[in-house]
Amino acid sequence: MRSKKAQAQARALTIPVPHQASSGRRERLALSLNTLDALGARRQLHTEPVKDTQRFWGMMADQLPKTHNGKRSFQQHRGSRFTNKRAQKKARKRERDMKNGSAEEVLKFDVQELYDSLNEPNDAAVPNGDEATLAEAAAEESLPEQGSEIEVEVAELSSTGDGLALQKGSKRIYVVPFTVPGDVVKVKVYRHLEEEGYTVADFLSVVKPSPARDDSRIGCKYFATCSGCQFQMLDYAEQLRLKKRVVEKAFRNFSQLPPELIPAIQDTIGSPLQYNYRTKLTPHFDGPSGWKRNKTPFSKRPEIGFMPKGKRTTLDIEDCPIGTDVVRLGMKLERERMEVEYNKYTRGATILLRESTKRIPKDTPAPAEVEELDPASTVKVETDKHIDLKTCITDNKATSTEYIGDFVFHNPAGSFFQNNNSILPVFTNYIRDHVLLPPNSPAGSSPSAETATHTHTHTHTDTSTPIITPNLSTPIKYLIDAYSGSGLFTITLSSLFESSTGIDIAEGSIAFARRNATDNGLPPSQANFIAADARELFKSIQYDPDRTVVILDPPRKGCDADFLGQLLRFGPRRVVYVSCNVHTQARDVGMLVRGDASEDVGEEEKKFNGDGQGKQGQEKGENGDIQGSRYEIESLRGFDFFPQTSHVEGVAVLNRVEAIAT
Ligand SMILES: C[S@@+](CC[C@H](N)C(=O)[O-])C[C@H]1O[C@@H](n2cnc3c(N)ncnc32)[C@H](O)[C@@H]1O
């Protein structure tokens, strides 16, 4: 009989009971880096993108099994990844669970995946298809007391940057920060999470380092206490490799696409600066104890810094080496100010530290401020062409200025702007190189080389065989910059387009986008900005979709399904999706590739017929022609905007599937 607790746990997670580990599996528990690489390799996606979409969809249609009603089912095809219905159901449940791509969701998924890989599907070992849970399986063994110190070996790295470790002879997974695969470490058991089925532990010390670890690389004395960085002990090339794997896993696990539709992930592009790169930091301090009741001010300077890992307190930090020189200087000055002004505060606050640059060309006479600059608050950076005077802004409402190559961007200091200036020229050049169709595609020439007349049609031949026939020789000449902020993409790319439109919900950012367009010499006819929710975009857009590329750069939670549905109906020729959360990006890209923005991922069968007929229930026009598009992925890769941390910025380039013929 299962206990009530075990039954509740069984309901919480559905994972086959691991039963007897084979000797092979036991070997895997003795984890070496080689073994881990092999595990990674086994899971990696090694498929080349299919260039000829017509051929691809035809091929898919041939390969897909037919359902009872004679239609070919995407889900059934997808099922070939899984050994049986139970595994399929389990995977579907996981995907459904991914809502906002939070660290908790990703960690939960990674724990389950490691658990599965250590207990390979062995149907014979699960009698009568009975299912039990990770929590239940772990409940069968006695777990160490909370607070006790144990030794564990790190088997895997979660995409959250946490090590996933095992104690010898146990199947329980311990989540241990600041560790890498192959490390044997001493940890303090913090909490057994019953429902999630894993244990959170505090890192104490390294017993035997992984070959990948070299602690002499650590550049901050607060590393392994502060929650900000995870990878300082790793070689930078290894950090980039790990981030590539994060992108791979995100698309494998959260896009709901079969491997054939996911191209091999390209290498992560590194940051020119690996320390001293953050142009914005936001240390904070908590209120005096009992501040809500007493409203009495501090009696001494509070601790100012960042959250320690796993605790809701503040770690007093006097310096953060990933900040730029002037941001670090700003941190020092703010702490000095607080030494004097602490008694003005009765509650906690976040301090803004934002770099701002005043650029002075060398071919003009140097203004007095260059001569008179105060080195106590200004950092001077000299290049061949100009002198940059850098200061640190602490007022959210002040204006910060930043240069990317020769482009200048002003921004409300407290609003969003990318935080690593050193990678921005590399990044914006990459987007510039990929925003238009590739040169070898029928329309991959520059807009000025255009000769073809636009003949975008959604032609219908018969009700069962819709054919979308765009004018393939039409070059792209319009840009939509959705979630534009203060105009980063519109402005750096505008010379490629006849007209660009940016949209952002933040009115302040749009006001600055307009100013930035003017300051960079763009007339309003070339760069237009709308302050509105992205869902309003397609109400006013007049661009021809065959000639339009859409850049998406939403916040971490990704795009909403309504907006994606509108995007599919508009059907731009190309989409470049930039994201600071590759998990929600994978979810959204999956929707674009399936041509379905409905959120109910438990109903995949209803959404897609792999026979090239479009999804069931897809909107049709008066003549029965399909009103929505779907996309194929041209390329996927990460950019390392945040070295030493586990974050990765994803860039996905997609093309509309041009013609579907059977
Ligand atoms: C990751 S930032 C990208 C900004 C810009 N592309 C850049 O790189 O500077 C996301 C932007 O989305 C905007 N945003 C958030 N929700 C939005 C919505 N529903 N509609 C339009 N914009 C939104 C935010 O104001 C923010 O500027």
TrEMBL record:
Record-level Gene Ontology MF annotations: tRNA (uracil(54)-C5)-methyltransferase activity, S-adenosyl methionine-dependent
Compositional bias (Low complexity): 442-454
Segments forming domain TRAM: 143-205
Example GO biological process: RNA modification
The keyword rRNA processing appears for this protein: no
Biased composition (Basic residues): 68-93
Residue segments, region Disordered: 67-103, 286-305, 438-467, 600-626
UniProt-annotated binding residues for S-adenosyl-L-methionine: Q418, Y483, D504, D553
Location of the active site: C580
A Pfam family the protein falls into: tRNA_U5-meth_tr
Keywords from the named record: Methyltransferase, S-adenosyl-L-methionine, Transferase
SUPFAM superfamilies in the record: Nucleic acid-binding proteins (SSF50249), S-adenosyl-L-methionine-dependent methyltransferases (SSF53335)
Entry's family note: Belongs to the class I-like SAM-binding methyltransferase superfamily. RNA M5U methyltransferase family.
Name of protein: tRNA(M5U54)methyltransferase
Record organism: Diatrype stigma
